[in-house]
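Training component of the fellowship. As part of building independent skills, the fellow (R.M.) carried out the full modelling exercise for a liganded target. The chosen ligand was iron/sulfur cluster. The inputs are recorded below so that the supervisory panel can assess the work.
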Amino acid sequence: MRILLQFPEGLKQEAMKHAKELEKQGNEVFISASPTFGACDLALDEMRNIGADKLIHFGHAEFHHVKENVEYVPYFVDAPTTLLPESLEVLKDHNTISIVTTIQHIHQLDSVKRFYEEHGKRVMIGKPYGFAKNNGQILGCDIGSAASVDKDVDAHVYFGGGMFHPLGALLNTTKPFFVIEPFENKIERIDKYREIYRKRSKGKIMRALKAKGIGILVSTKNGQHNMNLANIIKKKAEEAGLSAEILVANTFDFMSLSNMLEFDAFVNTACPRVSIDDIERTRAPLLSANELMEVLRMKKELIALQK
Ligand code: SF4
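Fellow's submitted model of the complex:
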């Protein structure tokens, strides 16, 4: 069988080991050297171009169904749980908590839940919206496991590595939010970022009020492609008297976007985190669809005031 292997950056160092194992079984094996950001970003074009019978995507669970032959090999990591006793002190005023984590640590969720229950907490595990596949699992774009229980809990606890995942959940919830980061050996309350990101969003909206040309980003990645939304945005922008065009790429290069001087603002329809995490990488404001709607609403109000 002709097989293409795809690894996220953190696992690329193991690519040759897996390739050799599959070759020993008589397969013809290729390794994708492109960056990948999740199972929303399968190397389907490369698979087609080399005529591969199968793509094996390591490190992530299925994001959504594709018709191609794709096998997902999630990667589980045992995170140290030594910080859990210490976290009881910072959580002492919060009786009902939710716990969320990533696919890498989802196998530890039950034991973390049990720990808190044994120490008198009521623990709720929320349901994802659909892109994440396990209760309690979050993705940068699926924070349902936290948001679905936000009204019922006193606080949220993220157990796992990095800030990328909890940040998305933080911005879509309202309760105190604690990060237990076992690899950096730290416990942090991160609520302050809600206000920081709200101000950043407001700043982008104010800058975009002067925009005349709008570039709408559409990614060709399997799980990020949203041409319908782009068409709706283009129509709304044009109805408001702006010039709008749809810009297509697999991975957007921010230098190339910055070279497109006719656009004074960009609107993201791809990974929702692009318009949160990458806003300092473009010359012009990089808005979400909702932020553009706010720009159009404010523009309308300003025009009405001037009449
Ligand atoms: S957050 Fe972005 S990169 Fe991650 S799975 Fe969702 S769409 Fe893909």
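The panel noted the following from the submitted structure. The two ends are 69 Å apart (CA to CA). Residues 60 and 174 are 28 Å apart (CA to CA).
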